[in-house]
Queue: 4 jobs
Job 1
Amino acid sequence: MKKISGIIAAPFTPFNQDHQVDYERIEMFAQLLKRNQADGAFICGTTGESSSLSHQEKIRIFESWSNHRHAGLQLIAMLGGTCLEEMKELAVVAANLGLDGISILAPYYLKPNLDQLIEVCAQVAASAPDLPFFYYHIPSLTGAYFSMRVFLEKAEAQIPNLAGIKYTHSDLMDFSLCKMHRDGYYSMLWGSDEILLSGLVAGADGAVGSTYNYALPLYQEIIKNFNLGNIPEAAALQKLSMKMVDLLMKHGGNRAGKGFMKIIGVDCGPCRLPLTSLTNEQISQLEADLHEINFPEFCSKF
C-alpha cells in the first residue's frame, strides 16, 4: 500500500457571501498548493469546517478536489466522525473518485471506548478496502484520549488497509512508540504545525496542518534545515512559526486562518456558524501584527 508522506495542507472550505460552498474556488485553492509545492491536501478536515458541512456538500467537495488527483497532490478525504452510515457512504465515494486515502475522527458526541472506536474505524475502512485508512487523532476536540500505540496494536488485525494516523496531539512518547511499532510500518502524520520540529525528531513521515496553506515556505525551510542537520536554524524558524500561530490564536484561531488567506490574495469567503468571520478591520490588524514579526517573506505565494 502506498505510503503517504510530505507536507499535506488542510484546505479551508470556500464559501460565498450567502455561506454556501463555492465549489469553483476549489480550483484556485488547488493551484495555490501546487504553486507552492505542497505534497497533498487533507480535504474536509477541522480547517475545512467539516462538522458544518452537509453530506451532499462533502460529496461535491470531494468531486471538485478529485480533478487535481493527477497533479502531484496526494488527496486524503476526511469523512466525519459522528454518523457511521454517512462515513461508509463517503468512503465509497472517495474510492470511486480515485482519491489517495480516507480518514475519520472518533465519534465525539456519543463517545466510544477504544474497542468501539476500532469497530467504527473497521467498518468505515472496509467500505473502501483498497484505500489507505488513517485514523485522525485529535483528542482536544473529540475527547478520545486513547494511547495510539495501543490503538495500532489492537486495530491492525481488524483493519487490513490501516495506513497510519494523523496525530494532532502533543504526546511525543506515544507518537514515537507508534513510529517504532512494526519498525515504522505505519505512516505517522504530525498534526501540530507550531511544533513540527518535534514531530520530525520523533520520526514523522509527513505533516498535515492548516498553516501550510498560507505559510508553506516557512515549513519547507524547517524541514530542509532539519534534513541538513542545521538544527539551530530549524529551531529558529520553528520559533517564528510559534509566534505566527500565537498571533492566529489571539485573532480567533481557525477563523483567523481565513483572514490570513485573504491577506495572501486567496479569498475563501466567510466562515459558517458557530465560527464567525473576521471583520476587514480585524484582518488589517492581523496583517499589521504579522509584519511586526517580519513574517511576510514566509507567506505562500499566489
Job 2
Amino acid sequence: MFWDYFVAFIFGVVEGITEWLPVSSTGHMIILNEFLKLNVSPEFYDLYLVVIQLGAIMAVVVIFWKEIWPFGIKNNEHPFSKTGIGRYVMKDKIILWLKIALACVPAAIIGVLFDDWLDEHLYNYFVVAIALIVFGVAFIVVEYLMKNRNPVIKTVGQLNWGHALAIGLFQLLAAIFPGASRSGSTIVGSIAIGIKREAAAKFTFFLAIPVMFGASLLKIIKYDGGVTAHEVGLLLVGMITAFFVSLLIIKQLMAFIKKHTFSCFGWYRIGLGILVLILGACGIIGGVAPV
C-alpha cells in the first residue's frame, strides 16, 4: 500500500511539472507508467491521470486569483460601483472570461464528440513521439523567426476576440494529437501571431482552468466502476502533490520566460520524442505504431 502512495506522489510531481512546461505531460506519463505502475485497474488509471490535473489547475487559480476573479468589494477607488450587496463586477475580467470561453469552444466540441475515438486510435507511443518532435521543431523555428520582431500583443488584456479564437484552434491540435502538449501548442501558436511570451503563457494558464475542469468532469461521468477508499487516497495524494509542485513551476516559468525563449523546450521535446520512438520500437513502452 505504501508503494502505491509513493507512485501516486511521483505521478503528482511529474504532472505538476509537465502540465505547465510545454513538453507534453502525456509523453512523460507514458514513459513513467512503464517503470512505475499503480496497482489499479486500467479504467481507474485513465481516470487518475485526468483527475489529478485538478490539483495542478487549482495552483493557477491561487496564483492568478486577483487577475481572474471578476467580482470585487466596493472601496474608495470605486465610489459609484456599489450594488445592493456592496460588490461590483469588473467588466474587463468578465470580457476575459468570455474570451477564454470562446477559445475553449473548438476543443470542447471535438472532446465531447470524439474523445473515445481519439483515445482508441491516436493514443499510442508513435503519435505521441511524432507530435513531440513536430512541435519541438515548431518552437525552434517560431522563436528563430520572431527573435527580431517586437510582439504586437504584450498583455492578456490586449487580446481581441480573433486572438482568443486562434489560440483555441491551436489548443485543438493538442486535443487531437496526444503529445502535442496543450500549453505547447497554444504558446507556440500565440508567439507566431505576435503575442508576447508572458502574455501567451498566462492566457494558456487561464485557458487551462475550464478545459481541465471539463476534461476531469467528462472522465468522471464516463467512469463506470466504483472507487475504493484506497483509490480515493491515491487521487488525493496525486492532486495535492500536483498542486504544490505546480505552484513552484508556474512561478519559475513566468520568471524564466522574461529572459529566455522557448527554444530550449523545443530541443528537449525533440530528444524526448526520439527516446519515445526508440523505447516503443524496442517494445519497452506500450502502444502500437500505426501500420
Job 3
Amino acid sequence: MVKWNLDRLYKGFSDPSFAEDLKRLDLAVTRVNALAPSLHGYAAVEQTIVGYLEASVALATVADRLFAFASLTESVETTNQEAVKHLNALRLKFTETTGTDTLFKKWLGGIPAFEKVLASAAPIIQEHAFMLREIIQNGKYDLDEKTEMLVAKLRQSGSNAWDRLQSLLTANVAVDYEGSPITLSQVRNLAYDKNPDVRRKAYLAELDSYRKIETPVAFALNGIKGEVNTLCEERGYASPLDQALIQSRMSRATLDAMLLAMNEALPVFRKYLRRKGELLGHPHGLPFYDLFAPMGGITRTYTIPEANAYVLKNFKSFNDRLFQMADKAFKTGWIDYTPRPGKVGGAFCSNIHSIGESRVMTNFDGSFGDIITVSHELGHAYHGECIFGESILNSNYTMPVAETASTFCETIVNKAALREATSMDEKLFLLESSIQDYTQVIVDILSRFLFESAVFDGRKTTVFDENELKNMMLDAQKKTYGDGLDPDLLHPYMWLCKSHYYSGTLSFYNFPYAFGLLFAKGLYARYLKDKPAFVAIYDDLLAATGRSTVEDAAKVAGIDVTDPAFWRQSLSLLGEDIELFLKLTE
C-alpha cells in the first residue's frame, strides 16, 4: 500500500466514534475547567493536583486522537474542507482551558514547601514531578494575568505581523531568472542543479531579487528582535539566549561546551570546502552558489518494496525492536509514500500517543535519498515507540533532542550504503551529500548563531538598516566559513530568506540543529564501541527525553554533555568522513 491507513484513529469524519470523541472532548474540557474554584486556596493541595493531572491526561488523550486524524487527513488532502473545518474548531476548543491552566500554574507556584509535598505525594504526582517543577520554574518569568493578555494582543500587531510580512514578501517576490519570473523557492532550488552555469545565474538572480524587499524585511527583523529584548527584560530573563535555553531544557554550560568544540572543528570543514572548490575550478575558495553542487551520483532507482527491504535489513543490525516496529509500519500502513495533487511537500512523522503508533508522510520518487528519508522518519517513529510507555503529559520533548533517533537511524542506513557502494561515483555522492549536510548544521548554523547574537546585542541601543544587516551577515559567514568560501561570493541576505529569525516566541532557532546532529553522532560512536551495552540503555534514554533536561537524559547513557570532550568525539566522526572525501578526491 502506498497510502497510509488511519482506521486505528477513525474511518472518516462521519465515523460514529469521531462524533463520540468530540462529545468526550467537550466533557474533558468541562472537567478541567470545573477545577478552577479549587485553585484559590491550599486546603487540599494533593487532591487538587491529582484532579488536575487526571483531567489533563483525559483531555490530552482524546484531543491527541481527534487532532491527529484531522491534521493527517488535511496534510494529504489540503483541499478537504471538512478536515480544515474540524482543525479550526479543535484549535479553538483547545483554548477553552487556557484560563484554568494559567490559574493552575500560578496556584502551583504558590504552594508552600512544594518539594515536601512531592516527597509523600500520590504516584500520579510523582510520575509528573518533572513537569510540575518545570511549571513552577517557568512561572517565575510570567507577568501578571492582565499584562500577559495585553502582550498576547499586542503581539498580533507586533512580532506576529512582522513575521507574516516576511513570509508574504519572500513568498511573492518575483525573481527574474533568464527573462522569466519565478519564485524564491524555485530559484533557491537551482543551487542543487548539475549545471554550474545554472547555479551561478540562479545565485545572482536570487541576490538581485532581495533588493526589492530588503527594506521592509529589515524593519520586520528589527521589530521582532526589539520586542523580544523588551519582553525578556520585563520577564526577568538574563537574555533572549537564556530564554531559548530554558525553553530547550538545556544549560548554558552545555551550549558553551558544544560551541567550543564546533569552533575547534572549523578548520577541518574549511579543508573540505577548499577541496570542493578546487574540484569545481575555483582557486579562491568555494563560491556560495556551489555549496550544494552535486558530486558523483547514484543512477539506480528503487521501488517502495525495495526501499522497505533495504531499511529493514539495516535496522535489524541494530536491534529487534527497531526492526519489528519498521516491519509493522510497512505492513499495516503507517506510511503515506507518493506525491499526489493536494498533498503537502516534504516529509514528517507524527507520534500518536493515544493509539501507541506513528504515521509517516513522504514524497517518495524512488531515489536513494528517499530511502534515507524513510529511515529518518522511522527514527522519529522509534522515538515515539519509546515515549508511548510514558504518560501523555510526559511525551513532549524539546527540539535539541527531537532529531536524536531520526539522525541515528539515518546514520545506520547511510553508513551501510557507503560500505556497499559499488562505484566511485556512488561512494562520492553518498559521502559528499552527508558532508554537505554536516557543513550546514555546523558551519552555517554557527554563522546564524553569531549573527543573531549580534543583532540582539545591537538592538538594545540601535536600529539596523538593511546594509548594516548585510554586513553583519557577511561578517558572521567570514568568521565561520573562513577561507573555505570565496570572500567575494558569500550570501549577504541569509538573514532575509530564513524564516527562523522571525519568531517573537522562539529565538535562536539554530543551535538545537547542531545539538541534534552531534548528540546523535556521539551516541552512534558509543554504539560502535560497545553495541550490546548501548542497545540496552538507548530506549531508556529516548523515553527520558519528555521528562528530563537534556543533561539528565544524556546521563542515562553515561554522557556528560557539559564536557567538550563529548562534542569533540562527535565532531571527530564527521571529520573522518571529510578525511575520506579528501583521500578519494586526491
Job 4
Amino acid sequence: MRVSGLQQAPCGTTARQVIERARRCGAGAYVVDGAETRDKAAALDAIGRALSFPAWYGHNLDALYDCLTDLSWLPAGEHVLVWSRHRELATHDRDVYEAVMGVLADAAETNQRLTVVLTDG
C-alpha cells in the first residue's frame, strides 16, 4: 500500500475505501474523524486514540512525532492512519493544522511502516 508518507486521497475517495484497501493489503488501518479535531488538543487526542498511544504520550507535537516514529505497541507490519475531514482543523486554526501536518509528514517519512492518508469524507 505504501506510496509515500503523507498523501491526499484522490477526490471522491472516502475514508472507508482507504481503510478497505489498506486491510486488503494487510496493513493495520486507524481512523481520525476530523469532525472531532477543531483545535490542537482535540487533534492530538484523536490521533493518540486512533493509534492507541501509550500512557506516556505527552499530548504535544514532539510527543506526537515520538509516538508516530515508534509504534512498537502495535502489531508488526504497515500501519495506515486515515484522517477523514482533515480540513476541519484548518478551518478553525490554520497554524495548528500546518504544524500537525508537518509532524505527520516528517514522521511518515522517518517511519517506513506508517502511511498517513487524508480524505475529505
